[in-house]
Write a structure and sequence with these properties.
3 domains; 388 residues; Nucleotidyltransferase, domain 5; 15 strands; GDP phosphatase activity; EC 3.6.1.5; ATP binding; transmembrane; single chain
């Protein structure tokens, strides 16, 4: 309400889209998630805007709208050639999107090969050109749920009366967690032991990147990809990654905190994360007194999670690592699925190329030069005729 001028508020379309946190609640307790949506709808309806509804968007929508957002902001879809024709954009100029949330993560890009699984394909027609993108959203692999899965794996089969070492937490970090809290999500509930979950578990951080990555790799099911040609994990089809990517939201937050968003190569990234993880917890707190404690504790775990997700799951490697840009914004606008959602629902991106289009500045410049030359030539001709 602060941003939209009062005279524009009543006509301003407003939508609420909910993502993976609500998808999980919907699985756990549908009545509760319906109540949340109905309450937020009631509240937003009281505002003087054109509210058009609240709903949980699908993972496919979340992945697709993130991809639309970045390419819209970078103007990858718009190719208008001199002469007034729209030409097909160069596909290498179209970016892939990597989004990491709290409860899910999305990967979307235009692959080199035909997309073999229609379940992971989204088709669009934008400005007159068709696009088929590969997109997949992994529920339970957002960073909060991934770390919960990591803790479950760390305590599995251990004697819980003794302290448990957690290599993903900074060296010297100590805490006590309720056993039940590890299994209070649809992402981990099926791993709960049959005994009652009443123990309190003492955990100790050991800050070891290599062991942390080994532990994190156990949360993916790579076996279900055995024998499949193109597969990331959990048996999910994924063609080889190709082209340039933007990695945003939590990919950015974690790498920004570790000063790793300036295009560092993979060995540098790995060694920075290793050094950060090995730092003593007391010293870390003293060095970052303003940082939220839970975030400071999780940066080591999240950074290693990002490495395993990009390298082991999505199969980026040392050669194409630098095709990933870790960004928060493009064209001074925050990147995420929300802008793409809005552009789609308000039909801001036409599916057909506009019949008449504004001239691009380059074309205007050429036209101006042409006009001046023509005027001068005509002037000279008239002068010549007059003198005769
Ligand atoms: N400024 C920040 N610094 C570090 N981590 C953040 C920041 N903002 C959000 N996060 C973390 O990034 C993850 C994704 O956040 P967000 O994109 O808001 O969530 P979601 O996509 O699940 O709605 C969460 O784990 C959240 O705790």
């Amino acid at each position: 309400m602060n941003i939209i001028p009062p005279e524009g508020q009543r006509g301003a379309p407003a939508y609420l889209g909910a993502t993976a946190g609500m998808r999980l609640l919907d699985l756990e307790n549908k009545t509760a998630s319906d109540m949340v949506l109905s309450e937020v709808s009631k509240t937003i309806s009281r505002y003087p805007v054109d509210f058009r509804g609240a709903r949980i968007i699908s993972g496919k929508e979340e992945g697709s709208y993130g991809w639309i957002t970045i390419n819209y902001l970078l103007e990858s879809f718009m190719k208008y050639s001199f002469g007034g024709r729209w030409v097909r954009p160069v596909s290498s100029k179209i970016y892939g999107a990597l989004d990491l949330g709290g409860a899910s993560t999305q990967i979307s890009f235009i692959p080199k090969v035909e997309i073999a699984d229609p379940g992971q394909r989204a088709d669009f027609k934008l400005y007159g050109f068709p696009y088929s993108i590969y997109t997949h959203s992994f529920l339970c692999y957002g960073q909060n749920q991934a770390l919960k899965q990591m803790l479950v794996k760390a305590v599995e089969g251990k004697d819980l009366s003794r302290p448990i070492n957690i290599p993903c937490y900074p060296a010297g970090y100590k805490s006590t967690i309720a056993q039940a809290s590890l299994y209070n999500s649809p992402c981990t509930v099926n791993s709960a032991p049959s005994s009652s979950l009443v123990q309190n578990i003492n955990i100790i951080g050991t800050g070891n990147s290599t062991q942390c990555q080994d532990l994190l790799k156990t949360i993916y099911d790579f076996n279900s990809c055995t024998g499949k040609d193109f597969c990331s994990f959990d048996g999910i089809y994924q063609p080889p990654v190709v082209g340039n990517f933007f990695a945003f939201s939590a990919f950015f937050y974690t790498f920004d905190f570790l000063n790793l968003t300036s295009g560092q190569d993979l060995p540098t990234v790995k060694s920075s994360i290793q050094t950060f993880c090995a730092r003593d917890w007391t010293e870390l707190q003293a060095s970052f007194p303003k940082e939220r404690m839970d975030r400071l504790r999780d940066y080591c775990a999240n950074a290693n999670y990002i490495l395993t997700l990009l390298l082991d799951a999505y199969k980026f490697n040392e050669n194409n690592w630098n095709s990933i840009s870790f960004m928060k914004q493009a064209a001074d606008t925050d990147i995420g699925w929300t802008l793409g959602y809005m552009l789609n629902l308000t039909n801001m991106i036409p599916s057909e190329a506009p019949a008449s289009v504004r001239m691009q500045s380059y074309d205007v410049w050429i036209a101006a030069v042409f006009f001046i030359v023509l005027t001068l030539a005509l002037g000279l001709l008239m002068l010549l005729l007059y003198c005769r």
